[in-house]
Each structure stands twice: as structure tokens, then as C-alpha cells.
Design goal:
Radius of gyration: 20 Å
Number of strands: 0
Order of helices and strands: HHH
Number of helices: 3
Shape: elongated
Oligomer: single chain
Structural class: mainly alpha
Amino acid sequence: MQNTPIAKTSRVARAHERLESAITHLEQAMSARVARDGDAGADAGEAEALRQQNEQLRQLNADAAHRLDHAIGRLGCALAGDAAHDVAAE
């Protein structure tokens, strides 16, 4: 079970990559739709709202990934018997 922190980090990284890939695919689909429909005026406001929402989701994802990495690191230290060092660091 000593590989657990590494496995958890790897799972978080894979999840992050899948989320980034999904966001990229959505952005491409949205761009293709706007180009195909040709009604850029009506879709411009919607596109901007989606871009803003996308940026907010990216930031939330980055924050969650950072918190998970920190928690995994703390758990790794605790499992390694370095809990005193972790408490002193805070």
C-alpha cells in the first residue's frame, strides 16, 4: 500500500487530463457550430457567456486539483510517519 499516494496522484492527473480534453472538444464543437450556422451575431453573446463559464470551470478545476494534491501530500506524510513535520509546516 505504499504506492497509494502515487496512485491517487496519478488518478487525479488522469481525471484532470480528461476534463481538459472534454473542455477542448466542447470549445471546438461550439466554434464549428458558429461557423456552420453563420449567425455569429446571435451566438456571439452565448459564446462569450460560455467562454466565461469555461474559464470559471477551469479555475475551479485547478483549485480542486491543488487541494487534492495538497491533501494527498499530507496523507503521504502521515502514512510515512512524518505527521509532526506536516503539522509544523502549517
